[in-house]
Amino acid sequence: MTGPVTGPVIETERLILRPPTMEDFPRWAEFQGDATAARFIGGPRTPAEVWRAMMSVAGAWALTGVGFFSVVERTSGRWVGRIGPWRPHGWPGPEVGWGLHPDSAGQGYALEAAVASLDYAFDVLGWDEVIHTIDRDNAASIRLAERLGSRHRGPGQLPAPYADLPVHVWGQTREEWRRR
Hints:
Elements: E1 10-11, E2 15-18, H1 25-33, H2 47-64, E3 69-73, E4 79-86, E5 95-100, H3 109-124, E6 129-135, H4 139-147, E7 151-156, E8 167-173, H5 174-179
Antiparallel strand pairs: 1-2, 2-3, 3-4, 4-5, 6-8, 7-8
Helix pairs in contact: 1-2
């Protein structure tokens, strides 16, 4: 791993969740540059735009103690996505969001990392609720939210520059998560 890791590191059966490092950039840029993978998160971005977004996530960890985790396969060290607690200014609530590199989808990584992230949000951060902002046409993310026990709360509004994205808010409380 190149560069310092500033923030928590969580290990699951198959994954390591940690704040981003510079070695994550090539795969992160592939992920966000892919039209299909980025369809529901604002569309494909150039490497320069992805670099700034990744730096924002790293800065969020440093300044607020929350941000997307880089999700890394334990056995290979390969970056597979970014999932975690996120609370941008003007967001409709404290979110655990997700996105996987296209070659890592369909392997259960999103569920495994999202469960660890929800546990972290409720047990470590002390959040009372967690939301997921999901495009109404994103069937895979809706299925994941349902598998996590989240309920559809209705349409939502994101702040600029994402204000034009059609999202619905899914979520649950800490008590609902503990009862699942």
